[in-house]
Amino acid sequence: MTMDRRTVLGLGGAVAAGVALAPGLHLIAAPATSTGNTSPESASRPGKRWAMLIDTTRCSADCTACLTACRTENNVPVFGDPDRDIHWIRKVELRDRNLRQPPISLPVLCNHCENPPCVHVCPTEASFIRHDGIVQIDKHRCIGCRYCIIACPYKARSLVFYKTKPRADANHAVPIRAAGVVEKCTFCAHRLDEGKLPACVEACAKADKGAMIFGDINDPNSEISQRLLKEKTQTIRADLGLKPHVHYKGI
Question: Which of 135, 146, 149, 163: CA 20 to 30 A from 124?
């Protein structure tokens, strides 16, 4: 996929702007408060707030370590149907419209926003926010309406059109999905709960790229907090007020 820099910083704006699902329900505006399965107690509980920093100056187009690791870890299949394949993380190529700068390889995934529109529009509260800020999907509640797919300005959600099969090479119990539900990146929540890094971050480090930094931004001493404080970074579509927590350096 190829895009220019202005396009990716405005990713999804053409879809979101002015679109309403019902009278008074617009995708462009962030909700005043997040809704879903998160109780007021857990939402206000002090603790971790996971986030990711992607340094595009260290990410090369020919490296697919993060993509492969994500598919293996989470049993994200490729069915061979470009219109219906599932992508938890994908790479977008950014090009300068004036061709004055070399192209940038940009990994795009769920941004785990503080004010996620996907949660705001979900009619069954299948999309919700964990107490640590991770946006999750309760697949028992998901009815496959795809409102959340339309609402997401990052195009980070996929509908499962085909039932998946178990992976023989998986190193843990991966879910087998029924067709008709939506899924996306979870920041490898199951790994975080075990004290591990997301699979994509671990694979990026093993490939000696170091393009992905992950950690708790509520901890001022964490590497990601320090780098966000000292380095120039930005988020995609910050103007929407969603407060995304995938940050980028070099775009």
Answer: 163
- In this structure, are residues 198 and 204 in contact, taking their beta carbons and an 8 Å threshold? no
Which residues constitute the domain of residue 127?
Answer: 2-249
Specify the number of domains making up the chain.
1
- Residue 130 to residue 136: CA distance in whole angstroms: 7
State the DSSP code for 234. Answer: B
Q: What is the pLDDT of residues 201-244, one digit of tens each?
A: 999 999 988 999 999 999 999 999 999 999 999 999 999 999 99
Q: What number of residues does the chain have?
A: 251
User: For the domain that residue 175 is a member of, what is the CATH number?
Assistant: 3.30.70.20
CA–CA gap between residue 224 and residue 144 (Å, rounded): 35
What single letter denotes the amino acid at residue 146?
A: R
Task: Confirm if 54 and 107 have CB atoms less than 8 A apart.
Answer: yes
Alpha carbons 202 and 69: distance in angstroms, whole number = 9
**Residue located via tokens 């329900």:** 25
